[in-house]
Design goal:
The chain is of the alpha+beta class and 451 residues long. The chain has 14 helices and 17 strands. The protein has helices at 15-19, 33-37, 124-131, 133-139, 170-192, 198-226, 250-255, 317-320, 326-337, 362-367, 373-379, 382-387, 390-400, 411-442, and strands at residues 4-7, 39-42, 46-50, 55-60, 68-72, 91-95, 101-106, 143-147, 161-162, 236-238, 257-260, 264-268, 274-278, 287-293, 299-305, 311-316, 341-346. The strands form four sheets. It has a five-stranded mixed beta sheet, covered by helices on one side. A four-stranded antiparallel beta sheet has the order 1-4-3-2. Strand 2 (39-42) and strand 3 (46-50) form a beta hairpin. Helix 5 runs antiparallel to helix 6, helix 6 (198-226) runs parallel beside helix 14 (411-442) and helix 13 (390-400) runs antiparallel to helix 14. The longest helix is centred in the last third of the chain and has 32 residues, at 411-442. It is globular, with a radius of gyration of 25 Å. The model is unreliable at 13-17, 78-82 and 153-157 (pLDDT under 50).
């Protein structure tokens, strides 16, 4: 009853399943394979959970499978300390006819705006509607059982499967942990006990090399999953046209974009974070609203709203449509989406340069705007985000002494030196490359032709 796992191709679900497919949360640049590939959808006979690696787990719908879905809100206004952080808006339990939970879906992992809104601006009930899980259940003929109070995960067959998402794959953490353990045992414990030797140092060097080696492997896997993604080939791309003299960087105009696909709107912000919104569905984009200052009539921003008239994305006009190419970019966005576009007057905060401060999507407006160069470098550094900045210094220092093995004629000692050199290269290379690319190219002011 826990589902059957199969492999899928790179195409997204089609037909009825696609119209109600649930998209995952926003992901950083090093994990964009997650929003591009992960989905929860149905084919009429089964509820299907697809992960970032295109593996699918199928849960039959009907008498011998899922017959009911219930919403389990968080305990109190905030999630209890014993619950996972992804349960802060609650979960949806898909159950068998006897009430046994088969699949548990944390709303926070399947809300594209996660990371941009919090509990103060979005109630658990509103979050449920924005994910599209209720519409998916209805499309599959799964009865909606209302709301249940939080209970234990345990069922007649143990814990239900959880449709959770992680920016970094589990094998990445396991290999890095193994490498650290091997290095500690063979570089410190055994030599301190008097049992050290060339071969123990060789094994320790292999363990230390696993740290940058795992990072390289993760980058290659991510590249293989995202290179030449077919959906983007036919996308209409709208890039920012910031107002002259505003201080926009090359990183912003080359990275930020709104891509319109037949069934999705893909938003990429200034640091490469990516989220996917559905089109032409109740929980997807069905309306464009251009916000105007109620006093002066100046354009402030653009909201992408769903069928419940809730803002799902916020683009500051100053950074997206106020430049020389702004009118053409605005017209392209309106034409590509093909939804009603209206003007709406608002009363912004007194500081028009940060008019969005009281908006529920203030964090989105900030991320869809240029950010300071130092902050951009910090947020786009994979080492700082995934492994921690101190590792580069520590691992490099511990690899310097074994480098002497490169001058040895002894095979094992030379291998230790070679592994140490590869470790230093694997640690310093990406960091230096990121800094040079950022400082010499991406963080420089844009040329007039890029506006």
């Amino acid at each position: 009853m826990h589902g059957r796992r199969v492999m899928a191709d790179r195409s997204l679900p089609t037909a009825a399943g696609l119209s109600h497919a649930v998209r995952p949360r926003m992901a950083p640049a090093y994990a964009v394979d997650l929003p591009r590939h992960a989905r929860i959808y149905g084919d009429g006979r089964a509820l299907i959970v697809r992960d970032r690696s295109l593996r699918e787990r199928r849960y039959p719908v009907g008498r011998d499978g899922i017959t009911r879905a219930v919403f389990v809100p968080p305990s109190g206004r905030n999630t209890s300390t014993k619950s996972p952080f992804t349960d802060r808006w609650g979960v949806v339990d898909f159950q068998a006819s006897d009430g046994t939970p088969i699949l548990r879906v944390p709303l926070a992992d399947w809300l594209p705006e996660t990371g941009l809104v919090g509990l103060l601006h979005l109630s658990p009930e509103d979050c449920l509607e924005r994910t599209g899980l209720r519409a998916l259940a209805a499309g599959l003929g799964i009865s909606w059982g209302g709301t249940e109070q939080p209970t234990s995960d345990a069922g007649s067959e143990g814990h239900p499967k959880r449709a959770t998402l992680h920016d970094v794959p589990a094998w990445h953490s396991w290999l890095r942990g193994l490498g650290t353990f091997v290095w500690f045992v063979f570089f410190l414990l055994l030599p301190m006990s008097g049992n050290g030797g060339t071969w123990t140092f060789l094994i320790a060097a292999v363990g230390l090399f696993l740290l940058p080696g795992t990072e390289v492997a993760a980058r290659l896997v991510h590249w293989s999953r995202t290179r030449g993604d077919a959906p983007f080939e036919k996308a209409t791309v709208v890039r920012p046209s910031p107002e002259p003299g505003g201080g926009a960087s090359r990183r912003f105009v080359e990275t930020a974009a709104v891509r319109i696909l037949p069934t999705d709107v893909v938003l990429t912000n200034a640091v490469g974070e990516e989220r996917w919104l559905a089109r032409n569905t109740g929980h997807g984009v069905v309306r464009l609203v251009r916000l105007l200052d109620g006093s002066s009539g100046a354009f402030l921003g653009v909201e992408l709203r769903d069928g419940a008239n809730a803002a799902r994305a916020l683009l500051p006009w100053k950074w997206w449509f106020a430049g020389p190419s702004g009118p053409e970019r605005w017209a392209r966005l309106v034409d590509a989406l093909g939804v009603p576009a209206v003007d709406e007057k608002v009363r912004p905060s007194q500081d028009l340069s940060r008019w969005w401060e009281r908006h529920a999507l203030a964090a989105d407006a900030m991320r869809m705007s240029p950010i300071a160069a130092k902050e951009a470098r910090r947020r786009t550094s994979r080492h700082l985000s995934v492994v921690g900045g101190a590792e580069v210094l520590v691992v490099t220092l511990y690899s310097l002494i074994p480098l002497a093995g490169l001058a040895s004629s002894h095979g094992a000692a030379f291998a230790v030196g070679a592994l140490a050199a590869l470790t230093v290269l694997g640690e310093l290379g990406p960091v230096i490359g990121h800094q040079l690319n950022s400082r010499m190219k991406l963080d420089r002011p844009i040329a007039p032709g890029l506006r």
